[in-house]
Amino acid sequence: xxxxxxxxxxxxxxxxxxRSFFSRFSSLSAMSPxxxxxxxxxxxxxxxxNWGSVAAKLIASNALKLPSFHDEVRMWVFEEVLPNxxxxxxxxxxxxxxxxxxxxIKLGRNVVADPDLExxxxxxxxxxxxxxxxxxxxxxxxxKGKVTGEVEAISLxxxxxxxxxxxxxxxxxxxxxxxxxxxxxMGANIANEIAVEKFSxxxxxxxxxxxxxxxxxxxxxxxxxxxxxxHDVEGVELCGTLKNVVAIAAGFVDGLEMGNNxxxxxxxxxxxxxxxxxxxxxxxxxxxxxxxxxxxxxxxxTCLGGRNRRVAEAFAQSxxxxxxxxxxxxxxxxxxxxxxxxxxxxxxVLNHCGWLEMFPLFSTVHxxxxxxxxxxxxxxxxxHKA
Length: 386
Prior knowledge:
GO terms for molecular function: glycerol-3-phosphate dehydrogenase (NAD+) activity; NAD binding. The active site is at residue 243. By secondary structure, this protein is α/β, with parallel strands linked by helices. It is 45% helix and 15% strand.
């Protein structure tokens, strides 16, 4: 079986303390020389959607301030032609704005959009992956053998490959295909709110070097975006993907106007199933990870304001008569819905492992998405056999 999946102290600083914040990190040396042999790190963001553009904005602001990084931040853009006939890459470089996926937000004068994937990464020694999960296999195949030297990666991708022999996280896919270490960044991060610099948090999960994790923290952290490292890649990454199933459930509750008590109950039950499944798949996952931004905080924000909740709400309001594909095309303007495919692959994994009865909420969400159950079944999840 081979399943490609989407599965699997307030920190406010004044302008003076902001300068202190950046000087605290500026003494850190670059992880390794860039491909051209200099001592400054070069960063490329692989992806340019809503969240990818915000990630580029965060990184670009720090690259200008930190002496161990080159000013220029490259951003690989999957080329699109806009309704006016212009190429998206040309417009981004001309206006310093991703007019399709993050309109109205300046990315930073040092962000350079590049439609050529290999050219975008060729001099970088820090790669930030932030694309829909379904593109990662093709991206890794295209970059295999092209990424050389001491390169570090971080994945903001919410997804997983599941094979007969077990799950393979996207961070593991990147490491295996490209031969590089890969951390992850997940959290309660609605991109549009971070884009306008509202306070938010995130979690960096790392497997090996704390020093590398701290380097990623310095690159993403700003006075309005607080990042914390956690020694638990699988736990952080699973939190970032499984919460989308819970968000679909929360959307059903909202669409049926079942109220806040019901929604809180579904969120709690969903978080419980997230933790249980994560620890079944990876016994090394830490309980404490679920109290980080990537855990309970991400469940809360995704169930209150994320795209998965919003589209699931519309699905329930239609009585399940409008398909998720139709609603995605109508409501998301080119962005991708992850929760429905996550629910499908979670269901297939649970079925394959004989765990369906252990995860009744996850199972019910999938059955509602496929039309086997009505949206109202979300509060009767214990009554339905998969």
